[in-house]
Each structure stands twice: as structure tokens, then as C-alpha cells.
Specification:
It is built from ten helices and seven strands. It has two domains: 2-173 and 210-247 and 255-263, Rossmann fold (3-Layer(aba) Sandwich), CATH 3.40.50; 176-208, no CATH class. A four-stranded mixed sheet has the order 4-5-7-6, covered by helices on one side. The protein has a three-stranded parallel sheet with strand order 1-2-3, sandwiched between helices. The longest helix has 16 residues, at 56-71. Helix content is 36%, strand content 14%. It is of the alpha/beta class. Helix 4 packs antiparallel against helix 9 and helix 5 (104-118) crosses helix 6.
Length: 280
């Protein structure tokens, strides 16, 4: 089970890993906490599209369905409302009724119900910073960790189904410094332009997250790319997601990375499988 804040997050974080496991017969469920209702249109080709402007929430639901089909996964809407990304100085208040303002126990119970029904062995989510500090991402972290602890405890949320104990929970690591540096150096060595020079300058003093698990999934980078493009309102086909030629990426960095947050089964670090210790 991969728990994400908005539609499109699943396609930019761990998508090739999900597609790989789905191809192997593993049941994979993406839980999308909000509908992305307050998202911006980030593809310049669609920013004035009347059909999209007339129904952005409906468009994003259709995009999510298309992405899930590409990845070979199932998907569930948790049913909360996008908080939007507050901007300005001072930051404005979050909209009333939005996901980030929902009582944690209310949102946790909703997720616990899905966990107990789906019965995953492994969950993935965001770290305590949300991966990046969007209020919905931080909230997703909070309820994922709370649901991981509560789902197996029959005394918590007794009306949310029969208890189920999840074996492991991971944080998506995503665009971490070592990966970016390695791909950057591969491009330079090949005499190609790198889009990551400014990134690395900004990240000089940025601490690295611990990577405990690297899943080889280069054969499914195409699935990831097609899933990203399915979110047409959110992904610019000429944007940074596609700035590195795929043959370069496969050669330099053929994995996706995760940080093991908690495990109830014995496992040896480093891992190359989210199900290490579970399969036994």
C-alpha cells in the first residue's frame, strides 16, 4: 500500500517500484488522501483549456485512473479535500475543511479502515517533513504512521474492521543528493548538459536522508514516465522529469530508494526488496 497526498504523487515517487511489483503478481494499492482540487495547472499546454478549467477535480480523477492502469495498480480515494500550497508572507490560513486541518484521529481512522480491508504487508509514505513541506504531505505522514501503529490494535478504532498488523513501513526517498549527483556526473562525463547544476549548489549543505533499501526497477521507468504523462494537467512533457535521457538514467541509477521507518520482521540493511523479511 502506497499512501500519497494528491493524484500524481504516486507517479513521481516510487512508481517504477510499484509497477515492478505489480508485474510480479503483488497486489498494489495506491491510497490518495485528497482529490487535488486546489492544484494548479502546471502544463502550459492546458492552462487555458476550457474543458479542464470547467472541471479540474473531475479531470484529475480521470488522470489518476489512467495512471493507475499504466502502473497496473489499484487505487482508492480517502476522500479528503486538498489544502492547497499556501504562498506569501505571511502565509495565509489553510482553507476550512481541508485535509491538513482535519483532526488526525478522524483521518487516521479512515486510513485504518482501508488498511484493515486491504491487509498490506508493506506500506510506503512520506517522511516527517512530507518529502517537501506541503501541509497535505506532512498530514499524510502523520496519519500513515498512526495507521501503521493502530491497524493491528483491536482496541483502536473498533468499528474500522478486523485488526491487521502491517509488517513494514517505508519513506519514499525520491530525489536525494547522491542520486542527483551521480546522474549529473554521468551526463557531464558523456559531454551532455546536466539540468542539476543549480540543484547541487542549493543542496551543498542539505543533509542526506538515510537510504536503507534500493529496488532495481529500471525496466519499469517507461511505466513511470507514461503514468506521469497521464497526469497531463500536472506534468509538463518538456519539464525536468524528462530532462535526463532514459538510457543515461538506467546506466547511472537503475533503482528507486526508500528509508525503512519501522519493521516488525527481522531484516538486514541494506535491502534490495521492500518485502525483505516478509517473504520468509
Amino acid at each position: 500500500m502506497a499512501v500519497h497526498a494528491h493524484p500524481d504523487d504516486e507517479s513521481s515517487k516510487g512508481a517504477a517500484t510499484m509497477a515492478r511489483y505489480a508485474s510480479e503478481g503483488v497486489q498494489v494499492l495506491v491510497v490518495t488522501c485528497t482529490g487535488g482540487e486546489r492544484g494548479s495547472i502546471l502544463n502550459p499546454r492546458l492552462e487555458n483549456d476550457e474543458t479542464v478549467l470547467a472541471d479540474l477535480p473531475g479531470t484529475r480523477r480521470r488522470e489518476m485512473a489512467a495512471a493507475a492502469q499504466v502502473l497496473g495498480v489499484d487505487q482508492h480515494w480517502l476522500g479528503f479535500v486538498d489544502s492547497g500550497l499556501p504562498e506569501g508572507d505571511p502565509l495565509p490560513d489553510l482553507p476550512e475543511g481541508s485535509f491538513a486541518l482535519t483532526p488526525v484521529e478522524v483521518a487516521t481512522e479512515a486510513l485504518v479502515e482501508v488498511v484493515r480491508r486491504f491487509r498490506p504487508h508493506v506500506m510506503t509514505t512520506y517522511n516527517e517533513n512530507g518529502g517537501y513541506p506541503h501541509p497535505d504531505h506532512v498530514m499524510t505522514h502523520k496519519i500513515s504512521m498512526a495507521a501503521y501503529e493502530a491497524a493491528g490494535d483491536g482496541e483502536q478504532f473498533p468499528d474500522a474492521g478486523e485488526p491487521w498488523e502491517v509488517s513494514k513501513i517505508y519513506y519514499d526517498v525520491g530525489f536525494h543528493k547522491e542520486r542527483i549527483l551521480t546522474v549529473h556526473e554521468e551526463l557531464i562525463e558523456r559531454g551532455m548538459e546536466s539540468p542539476f547544476g543549480d540543484w547541487l549548489k542549493r543542496w551543498e549543505d542539505r543533509p542526506s536522508r538515510e537510504v536503507t533499501t534500493q529496488v532495481r526497477c529500471a525496466d519499469f521507468f517507461g511505466h513511470r514516465d507514461r503514468a506521469l504523462l497521464a497526469h497531463a494537467t500536472q506534468i509538463d512533457p518538456d519539464g525536468f522529469f524528462f530532462a535526463v535521457p532514459r538510457d543515461v538514467e538506467r546506466a547511472a541509477w537503475p533503482t528507486e530508494e526508500f528509508e525503512l521507518a519501522h519493521s516488525r520482521v527481522p531484516t538486514d540493511i541494506p535491502e534490495d526488496d521492500l518485502f525483505a523479511g516478509v517473504r520468509a
